[in-house]
């Protein structure tokens, strides 16, 4: 597996992967699919570029220059927590550990940079996804955020009761490697 930071020219490929993972119709019923809650594209090329301006997107490929099979957005919150979003794995390659691998890689990078914890939000109605993250050490903090109903980059919600729960995982402090998450360069 090869992990690398996305570049702006990767936006179309990332958007296609995320939309296939989160909203694909037909047989693609991977663990990230949320089409019963939200319809329409999960993101767009512009949405991906917007995320790249606020952090970075780590890509997973099976081989150099191969297709993108997974991705996750990473940014740093004001308290130093590494905030992840938009974890996606190609539905055709799910269930082989790719999602777990990309989460572990980002957590390894966070520990190496001295981050105190990981943070994320999950739609409250996604019980299986919440359980998946709990098995990886993430716990609900008790904080609940309103769903961004007015954000055109998340699709069209099909229910009026969507909420986001905040989940965190405490990290042990690792070695002295200090990396700037926004650009992936040493400080």
Automatic annotation (TrEMBL):
GO terms for molecular function: acyltransferase activity, transferring groups other than amino-acyl groups. CDD domains: NAT_SF (cd04301). Signal peptide: none annotated. It comes from the Bacteria. Residues 1-172 form the N-acetyltransferase domain. Pfam families: Acetyltransf_1 (PF00583). This is N-acetyltransferase domain-containing protein. It comes from Sphingomonas sanxanigenens DSM 19645 = NX02.
């Amino acid at each position: 597996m090869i992990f690398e930071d996305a570049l702006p020219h990767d936006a179309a490929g990332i958007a296609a992967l995320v939309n296939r993972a989160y909203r694909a119709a037909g047989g693609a019923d991977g663990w990230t699919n949320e089409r019963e809650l939200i319809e329409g594209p999960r993101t767009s090329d512009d949405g991906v570029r917007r995320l790249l301006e606020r952090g970075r997107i780590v890509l997973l490929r099976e081989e150099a220059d191969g297709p993108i099979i997974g991705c996750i957005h990473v940014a740093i919150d004001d308290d130093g927590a590494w905030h992840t979003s938009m974890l996606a794995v190609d539905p055709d390659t799910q269930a082989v550990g790719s999602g777990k691998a990309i989460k572990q890689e980002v957590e390894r990078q966070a520990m190496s940079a001295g981050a105190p914890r990981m943070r994320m939000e999950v739609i409250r109605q996604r019980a299986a996804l919440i359980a998946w993250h709990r098995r990886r050490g993430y716990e609900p903090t008790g904080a609940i955020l309103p769903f961004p109903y007015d954000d055109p980059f998340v699709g069209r919600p099909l229910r009026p009761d969507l909420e986001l729960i905040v989940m965190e995982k405490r990290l042990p402090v690792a070695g002295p490697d200090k990396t700037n998450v926004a650009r992936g360069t040493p400080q």
